[in-house]
UniProtKB/TrEMBL annotation:
Keyword Transferase found: yes
Cellular compartments per GO CC: cytoplasm
Protein name stated in the entry: Unannotated protein
Database matches in Pfam families: Methyltransf_5 (PF01795)
Keyword terms of this UniProt record: Methyltransferase, S-adenosyl-L-methionine, Transferase
Gene3D superfamilies: Putative methyltransferase TM0872, insert domain (1.10.150.170), Vaccinia Virus protein VP39 (3.40.50.150)
Molecular function via GO: rRNA (cytosine-N4-)-methyltransferase activity
Residue ranges of coiled coil: none
SUPFAM superfamilies the UniProt entry points to: Putative methyltransferase TM0872, insert domain, S-adenosyl-L-methionine-dependent methyltransferases
Family the UniProt entry places it in: Belongs to the methyltransferase superfamily. RsmH family.
InterPro entries in the cross-refs: RsmH (IPR002903), SAM-dep_MeTrfase_MraW_recog (IPR023397), SAM-dependent_MTases_sf (IPR029063)
Organism: freshwater metagenome
């Protein structure tokens, strides 16, 4: 298995530091625990910090429990989807937190485990569920969705212009009973794309696999619900840091951040009207990417966009 390297680790710790240091008993939410790289770094940097960590994948949680064993007294691990932040905090009796971190997408653990069905390079069942205990698998989606819905998903979530041809060939295979594992799907995609288009942009199956993964895990809907909960959970001075790896997720984050950092005062007035100043400010104007040095060490970091805001008023 490829060694897991947490992305932008030092930068995330630095962005959360002022928010953590202003509190006597700081609490941070790690919305995407994974193998616990970011949580470990934060707990080691701040001895009074408590982390509430979410992951929807029980395999990731089992590994994180082991790797964070020495720090277990200061980390509460929750097996849940991150759109359950609000209800989880309420259940724990926590009214506000000092930081929230999202490191979106799949982990290298999930990608490297061929049986999970995320990778097109090895043959495996078409699963792609981050939480294998619930929901439709990729095969269920491919076998039961209409042609129109499949085209919509692959075009929108995969930004794939050959979606209609791919879906026609998927439907032929499903009608013939030959639609099976990840390799079979990757071959169908390859055959559906004209030869000149196959020569650029990496493996042609990448976009279709991304689209199915987003649909199977309802990634965009869940993120759209989760970001406002994370924003609302911050104490004054608290910070929200998000790393997205594909443009559809980054757009959701950007839109939510722009809304809450925009004053309600009409444009052109020199000062904010009473009660209409924004309660949040950008910590990073726009977004940041990873450094070239980090990308050379960890290619996954190349598509990362990092955004951060701070709550400045109650
Ligand atoms: C990129 S990895 C996080 C890696 C982590 N920062 C580390 O250092 O090990 C993303 C993790 O978030 C989890 N995840 C993705 N979407 C989720 C969601 N909607 N709710 C909860 N966990 C989610 C995945 O199962 C995966 O383990």
């Amino acid at each position: 298995m490829q060694l897991h390297i947490p992305v932008a680790l030092n930068r995330c710790v630095a962005l959360l530091t002022p928010a953590i240091e202003k509190s006597n008993s700081p609490i941070v939410i790690d919305a995407t625990l994974g193998m616990g790289g970011h949580t470990r770094a934060l707990l080691e940097a701040f001895p009074s910090l408590r982390v509430i960590a979410f992951d929807r994948d029980s395999a990731a949680i089992a590994i994180a429990r082991k790797t964070l064993h020495d720090l277990s007294e200061r980390v509460t691990i929750v097996h849940a989807v991150y759109d359950e932040i609000a209800v989880t905090l309420e259940n724990l009796g926590i009214t506000a937190v000092d930081g929230v971190l999202f490191d979106l997408g799949v982990s290298s653990l999930q990608l490297d485990d061929a049986d999970r069905g995320f990778a097109y390079s090895q043959d495996a069942p078409l699963d792609m569920r981050m939480d294998q205990s619930t929901g439709l698998s990729a095969l269920d989606v491919l076998m039961t969705y209409s042609r129109t819905d499949l085209i919509h998903i692959i075009r929108l979530y995969g930004e794939e212009k050959f979606a209609p041809k791919i879906v026609d060939n998927i439907i032929k295979a499903r009608d013939a009973g030959t639609l099976k594992g990840t390799k079979g799907l990757a071959d169908i995609v390859k055959e559906s794309i004209p030869a000149p288009a196959r020569r650029t942009g990496g493996n042609p199956a990448k976009r279709t696999f991304q689209a199915l993964r987003i649909e199977v895990n309802q990634e965009l809907e869940v993120l759209t619900r989760a970001i406002p909960q994370a924003i609302a959970s911050l104490a004054v001075g608290g910070r929200l840091v998000v790393m997205a790896y594909q443009s559809l997720e980054d757009k959701i984050v950007k839109k939510a951040f722009t809304e809450v950092t925009t004053s309600g005062t009409p444009l052109g007035l020199p000062v904010d009207l009473p009660n209409s100043a924004a309660h949040y400010e950008f910590v990073i104007r726009g977004s940041e990417g990873a450094s070239e040095a980090e990308i050379a060490e960890n290619p996954r970091a190349s598509s990362m966009r990092l955004r951060a805001i701070e709550r400045v008023a109650a």
